[in-house]
UniProtKB/TrEMBL annotation:
It is an enzyme of class 2 (transferase). This is Dephospho-CoA kinase. Belongs to the CoaE family. Catalyzes the phosphorylation of the 3'-hydroxyl group of dephosphocoenzyme A to form coenzyme A. Keywords: ATP-binding, Coenzyme A biosynthesis, Cytoplasm, Kinase, Nucleotide-binding, Transferase. ATP binds at G14, M15, G16, K17, S18, T19. It catalyses: 3'-dephospho-CoA + ATP = ADP + CoA + H(+).
C-alpha cells in the first residue's frame, strides 16, 4: 500500500486556512487540524492542563486554559512562548502520528499547520499549499474578531513568516481574497491535479 500524499496547508493569521481545510474535507480529503488538537488538549479535562497550570499558574480554570490570559502571558514574551510550545508541540506531534495510522489508506491527507514554516514542519510534508489574500482583506477579517486588538494582531504577525515569503516557498497558492465559490473551485482543481500526479 502506498503512503498518502501529505499536503501541508498553512497561511498567516486570518488568511483562511480553516475555511480551506474544511473545503478539502468536504471533498473527501482527511484533515489533521493542529489548532483543533491544541484546543481540545487545552479544553475542559484536557491532557495538557496540568502541565500548563504548573508552568503558568492561574492560566487554567474549570473550562480549561483561559486563552486570553495565557495569550497575554506568551504573546510578547519569547521565553514564555517557548515554554508553552515545549509543552504543546510534542503532544501535537503524537496526535499527528495517531491520525496517520488512522488514515494510512487514504490517497492524500492535509496537515493544517499554522506554523508549518516557522517550526520546520515543511520538511515532513510532500507538497506545500499556502492560503493567501491581500493584506487589507486579512486585516479586516482579523480586526473583526472578538478580543482582537491592533497591537495583538501586529505582534502575532511579527511571530509569523511573512505572507510574501510563504507564497514564494509554496508549491501551490490558494487565493482566498476572492469568493468562497472561486476558492472552492481552486481547491477541487488542486485535488484533481495532485491525484493525477500520483
Ligand atoms: C496562547 C494561546 C492559548 C492563545 O489562544 P488564542 O485563542 O487567543 O489564539 P489562537 O490560538 O487562535 O492564535 C491566534 C493566532 O496566533 C497564532 N499563534 C498561536 N500560537 C503561536 C505561536 N506559538 N507562534 C506564532 N503564532 C502563533 C495562531 O496561528 C493564530 O494565527 C494559544 O495560541 C496557544 O496555546 N499557542 C501555543 C500553541 C501553538 O503553538 N499553537 C499554534 C500551532 S499548533
Ligand atoms: N474566498 C474565501 N476563502 C476563505 N475564506 C474566506 C473567503 N471569503 C471570505 N472568507 C472568510 O474569511 C474568514 C477566514 O477565516 P479562517 O478562520 O478560515 O482563517 P484562518 O487562516 O484559519 O485563521 P487563523 O490563522 O487566525 O486561525 C472566514 O470568516 C471566511 O468565511
Amino acid at each position: 500500500m502506498t503512503k498518502p500524499l501529505i499536503i501541508g496547508l498553512t497561511g498567516s493569521i486570518g488568511m483562511g486556512k480553516s475555511t480551506v481545510a474544511e473545503m478539502f474535507e468536504r471533498h473527501g480529503v482527511p484533515v489533521f487540524d493542529a489548532d483543533k488538537e491544541v484546543r481540545s488538549m487545552q479544553g475542559s479535562g484536557g491532557e495538557l492542563l496540568e502541565a500548563i497550570e504548573a508552568a503558568f499558574p492561574r492560566s487554567t480554570g474549570p473550562k480549561g486554559v483561559k486563552r486570553d490570559t495565557l495569550g497575554q502571558l506568551v504573546f510578547g514574551d519569547p521565553d514564555a512562548l517557548s515554554r508553552l510550545e515545549a509543552i504543546v508541540h510534542p503532544a501535537v506531534a503524537a496526535k499527528r502520528i495517531e491520525f496517520m495510522i488512522e488514515h494510512g489508506g487514504a490517497p492524500m491527507v492535509v496537515f493544517d499547520i499554522p506554523l508549518l514554516f516557522e517550526k520546520g514542519g515543511h520538511e515532513s510534508v510532500d507538497t506545500i499549499v499556502v492560503v493567501s489574500a491581500p493584506a487589507e482583506i486579512q486585516r479586516k477579517r482579523v480586526l473583526g474578531r472578538e478580543g482582537m486588538t491592533l497591537e495583538k494582531f501586529a505582534h502575532i504577525l511579527s511571530l509569523q513568516t511573512p505572507d510574501i515569503e510563504k507564497r514564494e516557498r509554496a508549491d501551490h497558492v490558494i487565493d482566498t481574497g476572492v469568493t468562497l465559490a472561486e476558492t472552492e473551485a481552486a481547491v477541487t482543481d488542486l485535488i484533481a491535479q495532485l491525484s493525477a500526479e500520483r
